[in-house]
Amino acid sequence: MVHAARRAALVAGVGALGAAVCSAGVGAVTPREPDVAVAPPSMTLTQSPRTLPAAEQRALDLLRRAVTAQRTATYSGTQWLSSEASGGAVTVVDVRHDPARGTWFDVRTPGGGHTVPDGQATELDGDALAALGHHYRLAVAAAERGAGRPATVVEAWAHGGNRVAGRFWLDRETGLLLRRELYDAGGDIVRATAFVQLDAGAAAAPVPAARSRAEPSPPPRTLDDAALTTLRRAGWQLPDVLPGGMERYRATELASGGHRVVQLAYSDGLFAASLFVEQGGLDAGALHGFERSQVAGTTVHLRTGLQRTVVWAGRTAVYTLVLDAPDSLTPELVRALPHRPPDDGVLARLGRGIHRVGSWANPFD
Fold it and tell me: The pTM is what?
């Protein structure tokens, strides 16, 4: 059975990047001094939610209905997914969801399908919706169709301009999200997801039984503000706010081989990012499928797929950033986080499982 934290794995426009890091056999490094970001982001959420006019509140309520529907409805169908990070390549996946059994995926690839029997993937994350009304203007647009079904379209518009940043096609009957498109400042698609066929209720195909896992991982532990404050005092760099309006809305601690990994989930309401922090040095040779590059003057290791994964070393910790956001935001995020190499120049001990972050954060990679 796949790690329970992977249930939030399907990265959404409003959703979190999912969930777990597997870093088995990672060795610890005794901290010499805390990591310090070159341009430390604020540790406090300074923006308060605005009061929405009635038309915008209706749009937000429709999205909240979709959040509930994707968790409580029984449905099955075929989806396609594409992203800027994948170069526009399309992934086709069969999906089945049963509230009692979770979500099942089968990716249509030449090498065979990929199954996440216990996944409960979410296209929309209710915890992230709070930021949507602050960063974007919402509107209910003209009725359209999605997957052959009548749909209501909700649009998110960038403040201070006439640019649509995101569109959501919501099934009128069930409330389910049928299609979603997110756009960058130039109007190009950053990420798109759509059902091409959907059956709901009694017509939905059954979800296969979950397979057991030889070595199940312990569930993640939610970290509250007090726990984060304690970690920060111990030298962990765990910001609440990142560039691009990215606000932290969830923090969890993941145990991997007895080692501590902290995951912070961020969103501006549309786009999402997950930051994984683990104390130690980086074994760059263990990062399979990554390319060495320079971002914001920092040596990083990149991997692209449906998301963009960026790994680099700080002084006493390794930072892994998994992005479902425009590529133009990547340098700002890297620049705002610690990125100094270890004093001894030796990249060692940590990383034997870091290359799996992207695939764990998305069942389709």
Answer: 0.80
233 neighbors 96 (Cβ within 8 angstroms): no
Ramachandran angles phi, psi of 294, nearest 5°: -115, 125
Mean pLDDT of 95-113: 74
CA-CA-CA-CA torsion for 2, 81, 293, 272, nearest 10 degrees? -70
- Between 321 and 125, residue with greater pLDDT: 321
pLDDT attached to residue 206: 87
Q: What CA–CA distances, in Å, run from 330 to 59, 211, 321, 336?
A: 30, 37, 9, 10
What is the gyration radius of the CA atoms in the chain, in angstroms?
20
- List, for residues 70-103, the tens digit of each pLDDT value: 889 999 999 999 888 888 788 888 888 888 877 8
Instruction: Please enumerate in sequence order all residues whose Cβ is within 8 A of that of 306, keeping only pairs 6 or more positions apart, or say none.
Output: 11, 81, 83, 85, 86, 91, 191, 324, 362, 364, 365
For the chain, first and last CA: distance in Å?
18
Note down the domain range covering 78: 54-203
Looking at residue 5, the DSSP 8-state letter turns out to be G
Statement to judge: residues 43 and 58 lie in one domain: no
Q: 276 and 320 in contact (C-beta within 8 Å)?
A: yes
Task: Please report, for the domain that includes residue 218, its CATH number.
Answer: 3.30.200.100
Same domain, 176 and 302: no
Q: What is the pLDDT of residue 257?
A: 64
